[in-house]
Specification:
This protein has 566 residues and is α/β, with parallel strands linked by helices. The protein is built from 22 helices and 20 strands. Bound molecules: ligand C2E and magnesium ion (2 copies).
């Protein structure tokens, strides 16, 4: 026994031991041997023993059990204790003169024996002590191995076991599989944490049984993400069906899983990497009800390599200023002739080998790994410098808005950073506006709303971007701190497809009216759309109808036109 254990063992108070024996003299002898070190409770027959052990299952550290007892014999007590989940972890030392019974007791889960007549006091004390220590160590290991919610392995142990498995069975082809719950965040919000936990527990239990039968292992990696490592060749649909059995009724709507499979995983890759691949495959079928299982294939592999290259090239791109800010005009359409009223700064990457890359390709990637912050700082500075230049040269005050990623909102220095930019370029908050996408608000509402409130207190104007895609509840919208609502371009697309139906747009314009903020419609491409929006009471428009995003010098054309209008 090492001394560290010793100290821990002694420092954590007196353990409780149950001595179950029908003979008073035996109870007294054992009691006197152990009472200095332990709290002792006694039972004089089997029924009393069971009652005590289940009543104090969390506090009893050990049971010393006589086999020959009235009412319920010791063997039966042992059996029932091991059947009851609450008491089965409590170690039992059987005290008996009957050596024949030892094997049966071992089968039933007894951990050790003390013979009658009793050995020396020191021997009894040492055995009791050792048994409690062993059992507590085992419990600690069990807890650190397992996810407390589902009882599945936790991530670290899972990865370690998977690696051990590989070492033993190098030639067995294995699949790395990821399972996620579609819309889990919504389930959490709508039905509450308790219900969501119940769903995860159920999936965990069903998955464990299914995967164990297939000779594999499973774990919960985090939140609603489960991992499975099992021999190649199993029926994926069957795993899905079994894991999600009985989940049909979260408040009436169906809880659905999605799965990503990396078949025949390459064992020369790091184990985490293999599951990242399965996760990428799972992301390709996010919320797709028709096709809930995605596979890691050549196309995904190519995408992954491309993404890796972009990440690798990023530092040089910042250093060499390969990123260029384009500007897209926004027009006020309330007057008879539309008037240029502001612009949006949109970044492009002029990659020396890959040519012009649109932000839709690299922004989501950089949001995943945090590089977005560095990129956004770069774009904000370039934009601020440009506004300053236009102001000085053309004397026109034209507000420009920059995009602020959800990730930026977690930076405690964000407000300070903006303040510095304003100061360095001598700009007012009205000239430099901020666009924050609606989904940021809905993902971590309180944190984001606090930051937005801070920014507004400084004087910044906040435009809510892509409105309609983030699923804000009506309740939430009315308390959101925003100054402008930007209608997502998908609404325009849908409304003007075949059989024009603009009712949704009208509803959103009504919401904006109610909130008393102007609406900007994004993605307006035709005159028909422009006129319809104007008739519905939309205030501003941004889209190809007026112009695509263009480089700064080209954008000056719009400013000069505007100056002439004055
Ligand atoms: P967004 O902020 O919603 O920007 C509007 C997007 O719609 C731009 O795409 C713009 O080019 C496009 N667009 C505007 N009018 C039309 C139209 O009439 N038809 C069509 N089909 N598209 C139109 P872009 O520039 O590719 O940017 C995509 C998204 O990338 C942006 O969406 C924004 O979320 C993000 N983004 C762009 N620049 C930055 C940046 O500097 N920082 C951050 N964090 N995100 C950025
Ligand atoms: Mg935007
Ligand atoms: Mg937008």
């Amino acid at each position: 026994m090492d001394s560290r254990n010793d100290t821990f063992y002694e420092s954590s108070g007196k353990r409780t031991i149950l001595i179950a024996d029908d003979e008073l003299i035996n109870r007294e002898i054992l009691g006197s041997i152990l009472e200095d070190e332990y709290q002792i409770v006694f039972a004089a027959d089997g029924a009393e023993a069971l009652e005590t052990v289940s009543g104090q299952s969390t506090t009893i550290s050990l049971v010393l059990l006589d086999l020959m007892m009235p009412k319920i014999p010791g063997i039966e007590v042992l059996k029932r204790m091991k059947e009851d989940p609450a008491t089965k972890g409590i170690p039992v030392i059987v005290v008996t003169a009957d050596q024949e019974a030892e094997i049966e007791c071992l089968h039933l889960g007894a951990i050790d024996f003390i013979s009658k007549p009793y050995p020396q006091a020191g021997v009894v004390q040492a055995r009791v002590r050792r048994t409690i220590e062993l059992s507590e160590d085992r419990e600690t290991i069990r807890i650190t191995e397992c996810d407390p919610l589902t009882g599945l392995y936790n991530r670290d142990f899972f990865y370690r076991y998977a690696e051990q498995f590989d070492q033993r069975s190098r030639d067995v082809p294995m699949d790395a599989i990821v399972l996620d719950v579609n819309h889990f965040r919504l389930i959490n919000e709508r039905y509450g944490k308790a219900r969501a936990d119940e769903i995860l527990r159920r999936i965990g239990g069903q998955l464990r049984e299914t995967i164990r039968a297939l000779g594999g292992i499973s774990c919960r990696r985090e939140a609603d993400t489960f991992l499975v490592y099992c021999p190649h060749g199993c029926d994926y649909q069957e795993i899905m069906d079994k894991a999600s059995a009985g989940l049909d009724s979260a408040g009436g709507s169906r809880v659905r899983l999605r799965m990503g499979v990396y078949e025949n995983a390459d064992k020369s890759l790091d184990i985490e990497r293999r599951f990242d691949r399965a996760k990428s495959a799972s992301d390709t079928v996010r919320n797709s009800f028709a096709k809930p299982i995605g596979f890691y294939d050549f196309k995904l592999h190519e995408q992954e390599l491309f993404a890796e290259q972009l990440i690798e090239d990023f530092p040089a791109a910042i250093r060499e200023e390969q990123f260029e800010v384009y500007y897209q005009p926004k027009y006020d359409i309330r007057p008879d002739t539309p008037v240029l009223c502001s612009a949006e700064a949109l970044v492009r990457w002029k990659h020396p080998k890959l040519g012009l890359i649109r932000p839709g390709v690299f922004i989501p990637l950089f949001e995943e790994n945090g590089l977005i912050q560095q990129l956004d700082h770069y774009v904000w500075r370039k934009t601020a410098a440009q506004i300053r230049r236009w102001k000085d040269r053309l004397g026109l005050l034209l507000p420009v808005s920059v995009n602020v990623s959800r990730i930026d909102m977690y930076d405690p220095r964000l407000t300070e950073y903006f303040r510095k930019i304003m100061e360095e370029h001598q700009l007012t908050c009205d000239e430099f506006r901020l666009e924050i996408t609606e989904s940021a608000y809905t993902q971590d509402s309180n944190q984001i709303i606090d930051v937005v409130n801070l920014l507004r207190e400084i004087g910044f104007r906040i435009e809510m971007d892509d409105f309609g895609t983030g699923y804000s509840s009506l309740n939430m919208i009315s308390s959101l701190p925003i100054d402008v609502l930007k209608l997502d371009m998908q609404f325009i697309r849908d409304a003007f497809r075949d059989g024009k139906d603009t009712r949704l747009i009208e509803v959103i314009i009504d919401i904006a009216d109610y909130l008393n903020v102007p609406v900007i419609a994004e993605g307006v491409e035709t005159e028909e759309q422009l006129l319809a929006l104007k008739a519905m009471g939309c205030d501003m428009v941004q889209g190809y109808y007026f112009s695509k995003p263009v480089p700064a010098d080209e954008f000056e054309r719009f400013m000069l036109e505007r100056l002439q209008q004055k």
